[in-house]
Q: What sequence folds into this?
């Protein structure tokens, strides 16, 4: 899903002078998160924090201490479980990349992503999935409406607020084909994302896969239809952005809702997430460049609350999860940004932004027309 799905999806949306920087961000963050997950992230998320276990997993599994090939997590090998969970820890900070493309310092991306995964993503994972207080409360989030999409979406807003707008926000995506290819890889990968979260090959996993697909299909069509209604044309980029909105929105509810409910969720996601794109940029005046909050953050929140709307969980449990995770994410992300800004610049200089990050940050070109 991350490599190359998200990398292509985001890479196609930026200008050609910045496409390699997006690919570089995705693969570098994926590599760094993998090491940090083994070092401490998994322990914070799924360790036994003893007296603090409601809030913090601790360091009992630091560098997988005590984990062997014979270790089990429930009925499956712990090595399989922790590797599966690693993919969530990889994609979540990578989602944030879409908010600050075309103007961010590469060094800032790495330091921020490392601290954010350990201090924001991993603790929230423990609260919701690792035996923490939201799990005890009964908050339902099968595959990451809160843990992945709300955290990434709100963090994206915070970073976009601090870094400021791009100098040029009017250029269209340089390669809609990349966007479509990346979206299709994400679509297929999402079956493992959601159905795999049932941690079994059974009927529940099968139903989760089905409702995931139906929501994505409905959102693809409703986004394109609403775009046609507003502008007289339905774009490829718009349709596949709707696909991702439908996938993000069904994620927390995919273990709870019926196929018909999934279609309704996707249908509304394709419309309301599209409206949220305009609200963030025009009302909030925040250049969340690739609409991370509108598609992922708002979609994840909408999907989490839809579980209560359809009567599959209580409103108190779902609203509590949304508010607690949201407030924590906003505060911690702001603190991390302020801290990292004192270490390295958050933004490239004006000339570097004009040249493009491919050359100014990485010394490469994606397309050499003279070769």
A:
């Amino acid at each position: 899903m991350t490599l190359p799905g998200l990398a292509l999806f985001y890479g196609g949306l930026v200008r050609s002078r910045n496409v390699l920087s997006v690919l570089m961000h995705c693969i570098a963050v994926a590599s760094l998160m993998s090491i940090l997950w083994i070092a401490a992230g998994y322990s914070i998320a799924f360790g036994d924090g003893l007296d603090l276990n409601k809030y913090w997993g601790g360091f009992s599994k630091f560098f997988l201490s005590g984990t062997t090939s014979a270790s089990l997590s429930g009925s499956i090998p712990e090595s399989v479980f922790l590797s599966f969970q690693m993919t969530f820890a990889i994609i979540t900070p990578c989602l944030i990349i879409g908010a600050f493309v075309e103007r961010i310092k590469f060094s800032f991306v790495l330091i921020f992503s490392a601290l954010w995964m350990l201090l924001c993503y991993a603790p929230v994972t423990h609260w919701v999935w690792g035996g923490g207080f939201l799990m005890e409360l009964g908050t339902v989030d099968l595959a990451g409406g809160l843990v992945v999409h709300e955290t990434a979406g709100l963090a994206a807003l915070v970073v976009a607020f601090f870094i400021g707008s791009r100098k040029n926000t009017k250029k269209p995506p340089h390669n809609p084909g990349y966007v479509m290819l990346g979206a299709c890889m994400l679509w297929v990968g999402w079956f493992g994302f959601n159905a795999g979260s049932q941690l079994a090959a059974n009927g529940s996993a099968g139903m989760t896969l089905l409702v995931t697909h139906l929501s994505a299909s409905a959102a693809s069509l409703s986004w394109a239809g609403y775009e046609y209604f507003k502008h007289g044309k339905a774009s490829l980029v718009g349709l596949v952005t709707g696909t991702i909105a439908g996938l993000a929105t069904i994620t927390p509810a995919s273990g709870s809702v019926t196929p018909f409910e999934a279609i309704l969720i996707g249908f509304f996601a394709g419309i309301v997430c599209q409206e949220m794109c305009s609200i963030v940029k025009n009302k909030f005046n925040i250049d969340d460049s690739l609409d991370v909050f509108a598609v992922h953050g708002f979609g994840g929140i909408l999907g989490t609350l839809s579980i209560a709307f359809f009567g599959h969980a209580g409103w108190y449990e779902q609203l509590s999860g949304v508010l607690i995770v949201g407030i924590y994410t906003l505060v911690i992300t702001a603190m991390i940004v302020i801290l990292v800004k004192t270490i390295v610049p958050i933004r490239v200089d004006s000339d570097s932004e004009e040249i493009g990050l491919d050359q100014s940050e990485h010394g490469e070109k994606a397309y050499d027309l003279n070769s």
